[in-house]
Amino acid sequence: MDKQLDYDSVTNRLSQQGMVVDAAEVHGTLCGMLCGGMSLTERQWISALSDTCNQGETFPQSVAQILDSLFQQTCQQFVEAEFALQLMLPDDQAPINDRGVALINWVQGFMLGFGLHQQDLMQCSEDVKEALEDFAEIARMEEPMSEDEDSERALYEVVEYVKISALLCFNELGQSLLEDQNEKPSVH
């Protein structure tokens, strides 16, 4: 992929088409679906996003194209070396409250996407269950953050925790998808 998509370019494209979701929520939903066990090669993600983010309406071509690029970028980050996943959030120059709201949107999207593909939490490890409980807490955060070093550090730590927890979920529940992809039946 030539150029990595960023929060602003994806959010701008979505808002130009009158959509009320931001890049963080869409990316979180995609990540949740992948971490919940959705196939990396099936196209069911686009209809799931359409249902959850666009009231079931087909995406305009320009949005579908950027979403396809975002999906490919996200899949690539999950299958690359460890910790390649980058959450689709505003950059560090954005006000801390904007970044905090985007993180909440990302986590809410993740929970939605994960729930669409993984309803049986009994098969999940205690670590994954704990991460999902923590995500539920993060999704309910409402506190405005002050523009100080302690708040910056706290937000950074939560973002890193969310990223590592998403990778944990993918490694446990989504990793089998990679094996399925590599074990395509051969025709004799």
TrEMBL record:
Q: Where is the signal peptide?
A: none
Q: Mind telling me which InterPro entries this protein's record contains?
A: YgfB-like (IPR011978), YgfB-like_sf (IPR036255)
Question: What Pfam families would the database entry show?
Answer: UPF0149
Q: Which GO terms describe its cellular component?
A: cytosol
Family, per entry = Belongs to the UPF0149 family.
Record-given protein name = YecA family protein
Q: Specify the species.
A: Alteromonas aestuariivivens
Q: Could you read off the lineage of the organism from its UniProt record? A: Bacteria, Pseudomonadati, Pseudomonadota, Gammaproteobacteria, Alteromonadales
